[in-house]
Amino acid sequence: QVQLVESGGGLVQAGGSLRLSCAASGRAISTYRMAWFRQAPGKEREFVAAIKASGRNVYGADAADPVRGRFSISGDNAKNMVYLQMNGLKPEDTAVYYCAAGSTLSGWSSMEYDYWGQGTQVTVSS
After folding, report:
1. Range of 8-12, 30-34, 108-112 with top mean pLDDT
2. How many Å apart are CA 52 and CA 35, to the nearest integer?
3. 34-50 pLDDT, tens digit each
4. pLDDT-derived band at 78, boundaries 50, 70, 90
Protein backbone atom coordinates (compact mmCIF):
# COMPACT_ATOMS: atom_id res chain seq x y z
CA GLN A 1 0.00 0.00 0.00
CA VAL A 2 0.96 3.63 -0.34
CA GLN A 3 1.45 6.34 2.30
CA LEU A 4 0.71 9.95 1.41
CA VAL A 5 1.91 13.18 3.01
CA GLU A 6 0.70 16.59 1.82
CA SER A 7 2.50 19.89 2.25
CA GLY A 8 2.44 23.41 0.91
CA GLY A 9 -0.74 24.76 2.41
CA GLY A 10 -0.95 28.11 4.13
CA LEU A 11 -2.55 31.53 4.22
CA VAL A 12 -2.67 33.52 1.00
CA GLN A 13 -4.51 36.58 -0.21
CA ALA A 14 -7.19 36.35 -2.86
CA GLY A 15 -5.64 36.25 -6.30
CA GLY A 16 -2.50 34.58 -5.03
CA SER A 17 -1.02 31.17 -5.78
CA LEU A 18 0.02 28.09 -3.87
CA ARG A 19 1.57 24.81 -4.89
CA LEU A 20 0.59 21.77 -2.89
CA SER A 21 2.80 18.70 -2.84
CA CYS A 22 1.95 15.09 -2.08
CA ALA A 23 4.84 12.79 -1.24
CA ALA A 24 4.06 9.12 -1.75
CA SER A 25 5.97 6.21 -0.25
CA GLY A 26 5.59 2.46 -0.16
CA ARG A 27 4.45 2.05 -3.73
CA ALA A 28 4.83 3.86 -7.04
CA ILE A 29 2.18 6.46 -7.84
CA SER A 30 2.19 5.21 -11.43
CA THR A 31 0.19 2.19 -10.25
CA TYR A 32 -2.64 4.39 -8.97
CA ARG A 33 -4.97 7.11 -10.06
CA MET A 34 -3.84 10.02 -7.91
CA ALA A 35 -6.21 12.80 -6.98
CA TRP A 36 -6.72 15.91 -4.93
CA PHE A 37 -9.87 16.51 -2.93
CA ARG A 38 -10.82 19.34 -0.63
CA GLN A 39 -13.18 19.75 2.27
CA ALA A 40 -14.45 23.04 3.62
CA PRO A 41 -16.04 23.29 7.07
CA GLY A 42 -19.55 21.90 7.06
CA LYS A 43 -19.27 20.63 3.49
CA GLU A 44 -18.68 17.27 1.88
CA ARG A 45 -15.31 16.29 0.52
CA GLU A 46 -15.09 17.59 -3.04
CA PHE A 47 -13.13 16.29 -6.03
CA VAL A 48 -10.58 18.77 -7.37
CA ALA A 49 -8.46 16.96 -9.93
CA ALA A 50 -6.89 13.60 -10.74
CA ILE A 51 -4.06 12.31 -12.84
CA LYS A 52 -4.16 9.02 -14.66
CA ALA A 53 -1.25 6.61 -14.89
CA SER A 54 -0.99 7.71 -18.53
CA GLY A 55 -0.34 11.26 -17.34
CA ARG A 56 -3.67 12.57 -18.59
CA ASN A 57 -5.32 14.99 -16.20
CA VAL A 58 -8.91 14.72 -15.09
CA TYR A 59 -10.89 17.61 -13.72
CA GLY A 60 -14.45 17.99 -12.60
CA ALA A 61 -17.11 16.79 -14.99
CA ASP A 62 -19.32 19.81 -14.51
CA ALA A 63 -18.71 22.66 -16.94
CA ALA A 64 -19.15 24.94 -13.93
CA ASP A 65 -16.29 23.21 -12.16
CA PRO A 66 -15.08 25.89 -9.73
CA VAL A 67 -11.38 25.22 -10.26
CA ARG A 68 -11.37 24.80 -14.02
CA GLY A 69 -8.71 26.95 -15.60
CA ARG A 70 -7.17 27.92 -12.26
CA PHE A 71 -5.84 24.67 -10.79
CA SER A 72 -3.51 22.19 -12.44
CA ILE A 73 -2.45 18.72 -11.29
CA SER A 74 0.84 17.15 -12.23
CA GLY A 75 2.94 14.18 -11.22
CA ASP A 76 6.60 13.23 -11.11
CA ASN A 77 6.95 9.46 -11.23
CA ALA A 78 10.71 9.62 -10.64
CA LYS A 79 10.18 11.48 -7.37
CA ASN A 80 6.90 9.73 -6.55
CA MET A 81 5.26 13.11 -6.07
CA VAL A 82 1.97 14.69 -7.09
CA TYR A 83 1.41 18.43 -7.19
CA LEU A 84 -1.52 20.80 -7.31
CA GLN A 85 -0.74 24.25 -8.68
CA MET A 86 -3.43 26.68 -7.59
CA ASN A 87 -3.61 30.10 -9.21
CA GLY A 88 -6.12 32.89 -8.89
CA LEU A 89 -7.15 31.70 -5.45
CA LYS A 90 -10.50 32.81 -4.09
CA PRO A 91 -11.85 32.84 -0.52
CA GLU A 92 -14.19 30.00 -1.49
CA ASP A 93 -11.13 27.82 -2.15
CA THR A 94 -10.48 27.79 1.60
CA ALA A 95 -10.48 24.16 2.70
CA VAL A 96 -8.36 21.26 3.84
CA TYR A 97 -6.81 19.72 0.76
CA TYR A 98 -6.23 15.98 0.65
CA CYS A 99 -4.12 13.80 -1.60
CA ALA A 100 -5.66 10.44 -2.43
CA ALA A 101 -4.73 7.27 -4.28
CA GLY A 102 -7.15 4.84 -5.85
CA SER A 103 -7.37 2.19 -8.49
CA THR A 104 -6.86 3.16 -12.10
CA LEU A 105 -10.65 3.15 -12.49
CA SER A 106 -11.29 5.61 -9.67
CA GLY A 107 -13.44 8.56 -10.62
CA TRP A 108 -14.83 11.65 -8.96
CA SER A 109 -16.16 10.14 -5.75
CA SER A 110 -14.04 10.10 -2.61
CA MET A 111 -15.44 6.64 -1.91
CA GLU A 112 -13.45 5.30 -4.88
CA TYR A 113 -10.12 6.16 -3.31
CA ASP A 114 -8.45 3.87 -0.81
CA TYR A 115 -5.51 5.85 0.55
CA TRP A 116 -5.48 9.35 1.97
CA GLY A 117 -3.02 11.81 3.39
CA GLN A 118 -3.65 13.81 6.54
CA GLY A 119 -4.52 16.97 4.62
CA THR A 120 -3.07 20.44 4.41
CA GLN A 121 -4.99 23.63 5.23
CA VAL A 122 -5.39 26.31 2.60
CA THR A 123 -6.86 29.62 3.72
CA VAL A 124 -7.57 32.40 1.27
CA SER A 125 -8.24 35.84 2.68
CA SER A 126 -10.31 38.44 0.88
Report:
1. 8-12
2. 9
3. 999 999 999 999 999 99
4. very high
What residue type is 116 in one-letter code?
W
113 exposed, middle or buried (CB, 10 Å; 0-12, 13-18, 19+)?
Answer: buried
pLDDT mean over 55-82: 80
How many Å apart are CA 4 and CA 99, to the nearest integer?
Answer: 7
DSSP per-residue letters across the chain = --EEEEE--EEEETT--EEEEEEEESS-GGGSEEEEEEE-TTS--EEEEEE-TTS-EEE-SSTT-TTTTTEEEEEETTTTEEEEEE-S--GGG-EEEEEEEE-TT--S-GGGEEEE---EEEEEE-
What residue type is assigned to position 118 of the chain?
A: Q
Q: Classify 92 in phi/psi space as left (phi over 0), alpha (psi -120 to 50) or beta.
A: alpha
Distance CA 121, CA 126 (A): 16
